[in-house]
Amino acid sequence: MAAASSNFSTWIVLGLVFALIVAPQAEARAFFVFGDSLVDVGNNNYLATIARADAPPYGIDYPTHRPTGRFSNGLNIPDIISEQIGQPESPLPYLSPELTGERLLNGANFASAGIGILNDTGIQFLNIIRLFRQLHCFEEYQHRVSALIGVQNTKQLVNKALVLITVGGNDFVNNYYLVPFSARSRQYPLPEYVKYLISEYKKQLKRLYELGARQVLVTGTGPLGCVPAELAMRGTDGECSAELQRAAALYNPQLVQMLQELNREIGETIFIGANTQQMHMDFVSDPQAYGIYIQGNMKSITTLSCFLIRS
Known about the structure:
The chain has 311 residues and is of the alpha/beta class. 41% of the residues are buried. It is 46% helix and 7% strand. This is GDSL esterase/lipase.
């Protein structure tokens, strides 16, 4: 299982990295991360929240074999991207007291488990860094760096940086489908809810651009119906939840369309979408191409891949 997870993660990350054509450079550039639990590296450890990954089995395959605040058994996507772009270390959580001095110049990770595009997503987790607040922290970060290297150098550092943003899944699993007849599901039928999410996300991405981001990798959602908790609660006979799969199928194409529109409005390619759902399904349909060899039928392969997506 650990070997399969490692190979799968590596292929996914390489796909994301090469989507932006980011070969390692002699002088590593800054890296900024925004999003939810898929990319959080420990910000929630500094918050009074129940959305924490500070106890085993989290971290059992991390180099220290201890929980780090990552919602993973080991390294997560920002860690491996950092390696690929020549970073000396993965950007520290923005709330970490160790993020000072020269380490600020590597970038920062603003992600917080439980958040979504909408401010009411994840309210059950209490104190988390919602997306609008992450962007505010990014602005605050730039003021801190300006005190070190000056305003112009800070602007150049941010403009040249790689930015990863991973958000959206929680707006379905921890909002629209959190409980039967949720407030959002009563307010919007699913197609209209997806349109609303996309319109709100566009506003946040515009703000990210205004704050200086110029090379932004935006991931879609994976196959939401195959998330382990959803598979257990909503799946039938081991199959992924059809309703959540429908949500992902509606959301991802509209996200790509919105990114294209946003780039046209700006006049250059700033935002690049990574089709993580298709990457995942490619893995399921042809696991041997990714170095995964599993005995059994396709159903068992699907179950394994569903475990990997959010673990």
